Amino acid sequence: MSEILRELLRVSEKAANIARACRQQEALFQLLIEEKKEGEKNKKFTVDFKTLADVLVQEVIKQNMENKFPGLEKNIFGEESNEFTNDLGEKITIKLCSTEEETAQLLSKVLNGNKSAAEALAKVVHQDVAFADPALDSIVINIPQDLIGIWVDPIDSTYQYIKGSADTQSNQGIFPSGLQCVTILIGVYDIQTGVPLMGVINQPFVSRDLNTLRWKGQCYWGLSYMGTNIHSLEHAICKRNGSEKRTENSSPESEASSAFSAVISTSEKESIKAALARVCGDRIFRAAGAGYKSLCVVQGLVDIYIFSEDTTFKWDSCAAHAILRAMGGGMVDMKECLERNPDSGLDLPQLLYHRENQGAAGVDRWANKGGLIAYRSRERLETFLSLLVQHLAPLETQA
């Protein structure tokens, strides 16, 4: 349903405005951070945090979508609990109230009575946002509303968001850390099959005006349903170091002969890094944030995003997966890929989004248990996998 995608783009931009507004004043921002409790934490981190921006963004997305599409809220799932605790120990449920004044009163409780800060945030929360993309005007698609679910990661790479580094230098267009790694992720999937259908990735912090110190962002989207595939980068030419980068229209011959590039987590296993070094040489990039690393693949900055651990979740991957599907790519279970016989005729084990992991508790119910690989070209992925398996085998024997 193209109307749903239009609304998701609009609310993602409103969410980006909230993320930017919360980061404008450092003193205020420190009031907005809270450590996550057991059951909410990502086991990858010794200490895991959420911010008021995370919770506000999630609730704004849920409430706006419910207002526009009644009944949809029950199928919107997010990373964050909407409870926040202030300095007095009061547990406050964050929600979008019907008026700006009521929302300001609620936020004032979280902000320990800081009325001016609460009013400023409430204004952004209730501010109407216009977002248009002419490419969407030509789409007329009817996806039954009762068949869709939505995964929301309100602010991915919360650590980078809290740290707030604005002067990180990119490496061939890829930022290893900093605010540029922060993304807002909204993924729509079929609740019966688990297949991703629509995705929106909003990057709130792309460039900063050196005079006003205000940030501008960028939004990416894709739709893949019943043979219709369209995305925001359809007519874009990705550039890298000022030269044209390979696009989806490159010939298979030129793709097969070019070296692979990959983006990975700094916490990736040594065995995977060693095998990747043999496949990619020095074209391995490290970056923060699962959403941002996936976005690097969407943008064509790298061929592959690979992560072998089970500490990414459905809300981390659904949005980018939908966009990559629209581009002819996808996101697969890494463990199953490495165990799969390429001559078996079996399809690639795409990640699915409608079932929780049996026997798991807390956030682990929705973990991507086998790790993941994001890619833009199936042919490139198949070649990459064959090389990776070859180089992993001797390493495992040595171990």
Automatic annotation (TrEMBL):
The keyword Phosphoprotein applies. Belongs to the inositol monophosphatase superfamily. GO terms for molecular function: inositol-1,4-bisphosphate 1-phosphatase activity; metal ion binding. PROSITE patterns: IMP_1, IMP_2. One of its GO terms (biological process) is phosphatidylinositol phosphate biosynthetic process. It catalyses: 1D-myo-inositol 1,4-bisphosphate + H2O = 1D-myo-inositol 4-phosphate + phosphate; 1D-myo-inositol 1,3,4-trisphosphate + H2O = 1D-myo-inositol 3,4-bisphosphate + phosphate. Monomer. Its EC number is 3.1.3.57. Mg(2+)-dependent phosphatase that catalyzes the hydrolysis of the 1-position phosphate from inositol 1,4-bisphosphate and inositol 1,3,4-trisphosphate and participates in inositol phosphate metabolism. It is an enzyme of class 3 (hydrolase). Mg(2+) binds at E79, D153, I155, D156, D316. Keywords: Hydrolase, Lithium, Magnesium, Metal-binding, Phosphoprotein. InterPro entries: CysQ/Inositol_MonoPase, Inositol_monoP_metal-BS, Inositol_monophosphatase-like, Inositol_monophosphatase_CS, INPP1_dom_1. Gene3D superfamilies: 3.40.190.80, Fructose-1,6-Bisphosphatase, subunit A, domain 1, Inositol Polyphosphate 1-phosphatase, domain 1. Pfam families: Inositol_P. Pathway: Signal transduction; phosphatidylinositol signaling pathway. Its cofactor is Mg(2+). The keyword Hydrolase applies. This is Inositol polyphosphate 1-phosphatase.
